[in-house]
Amino acid sequence: MTTVKPDSRKIRSFTRLYWEQGRRVLAQTTAPVINLLGNVPLEEVKNRAEHMMDSQELRQYLIELWSKTGTYFAQDMSTTLIQRQSKEGNAWEEGYIQYILARVTKKAKDIARTQATLFNSVIDLVVQEGYRDGLSIDAITERLQYEVKKRMLSVQKYEAERIARTEVIGAANKGSFDGAMSTGLGIKKGWLTSGLKGVRASHGSYEGMGFVPMNYEYNFGLMHPGDPNGTAEEIINCRCTIIYATQI
Predict the structure, then answer these.
(1) Interatomic CA distance for residues 140 and 23, integer angstroms
(2) Pairing state between β 188-192 and 212-213
(3) What residues contact 108, with CB distance under 8 A and at least 6 apart?
(4) In the chain, N or C: fewer CB atoms in 10 Å?
């Protein structure tokens, strides 16, 4: 039996790449809303934030992340497992593209919602601090753009890392899973935790199961680590990897 897993170094490389890109994209999606501060009533700004942050730049970022990461790992896994490209070509490709499009639509809305919630919380905090400091409404308004931008950039550094790690792990594991399935070989899958502090108890139990059939569902909707069909509690900041066992 041979055990195969996605290249962890490449996962880290993709994560670093899309962490940096993600910081820029989150800043881009926030900038137009920040520019409304002082020009539009605060409640209107807060009401418009989520819709404005669900931007084309954000969607394109996610499409690129999932396309490039998933494609790399799907091709690498199928080639590794059968030592050559499948005679059927990229049998996983069409289904994966459809998966990406559905995934990005939902994920972009989720990210925009989270960013809008953070944004509105920062606004409320800056306003509260202004009143506490005895500032006038005009003075608070003047302070808003600078303070909100500064604090959002700080928050988004962490947010971009969380998004990049979650999405790259999801794309890498989904890509390798589809690539493995496309070979038609008798393969089983396994769950490998990072071994780092803070591994979820459920993920430890999945690892303890050893190798299971490819169609086995670890939890509701969860076919592999980082599977976006799983619950948020199972996938956010997950560092686990899918591995495979084959007779070749």
Answers:
(1) 27
(2) antiparallel
(3) 54, 58, 59, 62
(4) N
Q: How far is CA 156 from CA 28, 37, 133, in A?
A: 11, 19, 26
Q: What's the distance, CA 179 to chain centroid?
A: 20
Copy the structure tokens of residue 57: 């730049």
Residues 6+ apart with CB under 8 A from 14: 65, 68, 69, 72, 168, 171, 172
SS3 191: strand
Q: What are the structural domain ranges in the chain?
A: 9-184
Show pLDDT as tens, one digit a residue, over the chain (248 residues): 788 889 999 999 999 999 999 999 999 999 999 999 989 999 999 999 999 999 999 999 999 999 999 999 998 988 888 764 444 556 667 777 888 888 888 899 999 999 999 999 999 999 999 999 999 989 998 899 999 999 999 999 999 999 999 999 999 999 999 888 888 888 999 999 988 888 999 999 999 999 999 999 999 889 999 888 888 889 888 889 999 998 65
Q: How far apart are CA 4 and CA 83, in angstroms?
A: 12
Q: Helices 56-82 & 8-34, crossing angle to 10 degrees?
A: 170
